[in-house]
Amino acid sequence: MIHTESLAMTYPGGVTALTPTSVRFERGAVTVLLGPSGAGKSTLLHCLNRLRAPTAGRVVADGVGPLEDAAAIRRHRRRTAMIFQQHQLLPRVSVLRNTLIGRLGHHGFWRSTLPLPAGERRLALDSLERVGLLDKALVRADQLSGGQQQRVGIARALTQQAELVLADEPVASLDPGASRQVLSLLRDVCTERGLTAVISLHQVEYTREFADRVIALADGGVVFDGPPSALDDDVLCRVYGPGAVADLRRDAAGAAA
User: End of a domain among 116, 136, 162?
Assistant: First the structure.
């Protein structure tokens, strides 16, 4: 589906966020990028959609090729949806209009300034129904809860008819109940539609529950790549540092409660 070749990122000031990294993300799998803040997971995720341009290496998307010129990046973004921690909705606009934003990449600039066809409105309404928000279609986005706003983000991805979903800490600001609802819905939608998902998380318990594959990062490098069942104490020590396992278990117990 998409892979990186010796991808690296150094920010101004000499801060290395990602050391040379080569990974492949297979079609239809839900992959979690796991690690603490500053591990490099958000940088890697953003490079997959060229929201950040790497300082070395490259990203290659199947059917598009290297994401190195504007035309290739546009083609890739047309089939790639982003879900952000802070929702990235237009707060004073209806849920339906926010969902229809997923269609704008399929139209030229001038066409996108006009009302979209009725067929695309039906597609957006179907997407809202799938995420359980059809009754909120005409409600302003800023009147929704955080969990509902993230569900609008999923509906927007469905309306976009994306093949790849990139989610950057999508449940960081949600309570445990809403977090599980959003991640369960995202996983179910990806399974139903055969979508590829790459999700950055720092919660080990959610990673074990919802991932098909885990790529764990620490200090800008990959320290583990495998199934969630293999996330043992040794791996967690490499990711979070010595002495962190007891803290993670306590946090997981608190989330479960």
Answer: 162
